[in-house]
Amino acid sequence: MLVLARKLDESIVIGDNINIKIISIDKGVVKLGIDAPKDVSIVRNELLEDVKDLNIAASKEYSQDDLSQLSKIIKK
């Protein structure tokens, strides 16, 4: 992991087309501005973790027999 120190209004560049700028720092909260192409997905890590946990929970709601029956139906 690369760790960088930046001050207000300073930025870093990732690759050729992603720019991350420090917008504000207030009471321990840092606001970032991210300028990236529209095809680059930017998602907060905690949201990814929530989706992952929900997917795991949803997959446990069905038994192996249920999945086998569904597989047989799909193959028909």
- Binned strand content: 25-35%
Main beta sheet: 3 strands, antiparallel
Portion in helices: 25-40%
User: Which radius of gyration do the C-alpha atoms yield?
Assistant: 21 Å
Structural class: alpha+beta
* N-end to C-end Cα span: 49 Å
Strand order of the largest sheet: 1-2-3
Q: Any idea what the shape is? A: elongated
Overall residue-averaged pLDDT value? 90
Q: Give me the strand/helix succession.
A: EEEHH
Low-confidence stretches: none
- The oligomeric state is single chain
Structure in words:
With 76 residues, this protein is an alpha+beta fold. 36% of the residues lie in helices and 26% in strands. It contains two helices and three strands, in the order βββαα. β1 (11-14) and β2 form a beta hairpin. The longest helix has 15 residues, at 45-59. The radius of gyration is 21 Å and the shape is elongated. The model has no long low-confidence stretch (mean pLDDT 90).
